[in-house]
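Let us practice reading a record.
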Amino acid sequence: MIIAIDGPAASGKGTLARRLAAHYRLPHLDTGLLYRATALALMEAGLPLDDVVHAVEAARGLALTEYAETDLRGHAMGEAASQVAAMPEVRAELVRLQRDFAARPGGAVLDGRDIGSVICPQADVKIFVTAAPEVRASRRVREMMERGEKPDPAMVLADIVRRDARDAGRSSAPLVKAGDAVDLDTSALDVEAAFRAALAIVEARRT
């Protein structure tokens, strides 16, 4: 069984993907980490994030095991990853890696922005997770504060809106709901309620 979970930043898709993967004992891939690792490779080399040639090289030689996940998390890395992900050449390099992961025996859970529409259009279950920008910004502020950061809520909201526009407007594999995906708005849901709703969607598609 392949479960594809898409949605914008801070919608809750990653948490849901991890919970569903654990519930069904399936491997999970946060595809956003691939773009974050590519961006971090550029940053560590002192290269600009719009350097297509070196970004493609970084994606081609990517090994997530080289990075601690804590180094790939955070608002700044998310912004950097969004810039790298807008390059069609980088996306092309990472498509194969993601599809290979999804083809594992027994299936997998993948979350990102183009899983159901591009990476795994044949997925058994597709969920498109959404939440109001203000709610997502509030969640991101809370995450940043838990890491000891002191975010400006207005700036975080502006970044969320700007990132949404960039992800939806890019020429290659834009953030878009697959035609057969089920909407899940988590704006008014806590983690447990969102998980129960996602689980119900999966079970309904399995029957």
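A brief commentary: Residues 82 and 163 are 7 Å apart (CA to CA).
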